[in-house]
From TrEMBL:
GO MF, one example: peroxiredoxin activity
InterPro entries per the UniProt record, alphabetical: AhpD-like, CMD-like
Entry keyword set: Oxidoreductase, Peroxidase
Record's protein name: Alkylhydroperoxidase
Pfam families to which the protein is assigned, alphabetical: CMD
PANTHER family: ALKYL HYDROPEROXIDE REDUCTASE AHPD, BLR3452 PROTEIN
Gene3D superfamilies in UniProt: AhpD-like
Domain Carboxymuconolactone decarboxylase-like: 22-100
Amino acid sequence: MSREPHEHYQRLKARHGELIGAVEALRQAAANSGPLDAKTGLLIQLAAAAAIRSHGSVHSHTIRALEAGATPEEIRHAVTVLTSTIGFPTVAAALAWVDDVLERGY
């Protein structure tokens, strides 16, 4: 299921290679700093993206969670459990963004 990063990310990387390289190194260091497996870490990142209402990040982390072995049900649940914390309207929007990815068959 591997895919190329979104073209916006590719443009950022071309324009700001050193910065994006540092961000990627930080992401990898954080992922490697504890006992969580990749799938769990990506589901947490997906939930955080939903909480900050980041449409693009929800798309990206949905794809990455799928690539790490998460099921559509696990992905939807990672967002749904936020309802009492971030509110139903935000969860509903994030679920729509998740479905954008899942319905495209990524």
